[in-house]
Design brief:
Length: 134
């Protein structure tokens, strides 16, 4: 999980943590028992930590792209591309992964961030991957 997303010369501080929190909230509302990392680690260190703490899966997020636009003035929508990997902590095998191309709404006050755009797309993915559609 990255703690900083950069687009051109603009740094978005805490973008990784904010997106992590949004993903955590989506999983929690679906009833999936989950915990969020308290610090940023590499994928390998995240896997080791998750395994040591007895977790079956690690959801590793990567913000691949983020354009935070002044939509209310420019008419250009915010955009983000987020990758999620579901990794088995025993085998270290990626069980599933997905890339989400997120686009904000035309109408916004103060702009959207990746964490503001994850809801529906990610919720449907989590329902599928954790077999919660019953």
């Amino acid at each position: 999980m990255g703690t900083l997303m950069k687009y051109d010369e603009i740094n978005y501080v805490n973008s990784g943590e904010m997106t992590r929190d949004a993903l955590f909230n989506e999983l929690s509302t679906l009833g999936v028992k989950t915990e969020k990392a308290d610090k940023t680690l590499s994928k390998i260190d995240s896997l080791l930590s998750a395994k040591q703490q007895g977790y079956v899966f690690l959801i590793y997020q990567t913000i691949l792209h983020w354009e935070d636009r002044a939509t209310e003035w420019s008419g250009l929508r915010d955009r983000a591309k987020i990758k999620l990997e579901l990794i088995d902590t025993d085998t270290k095998v990626t069980v599933d992964n997905a890339i989400f191309n997120l686009v904000g709404t035309w109408w916004t006050f103060g702009g959207l961030h990746p964490q503001d755009m994850v809801s529906e797309a990610v919720k449907e993915y989590f329902k599928k991957v954790f077999d919660l559609e019953k």
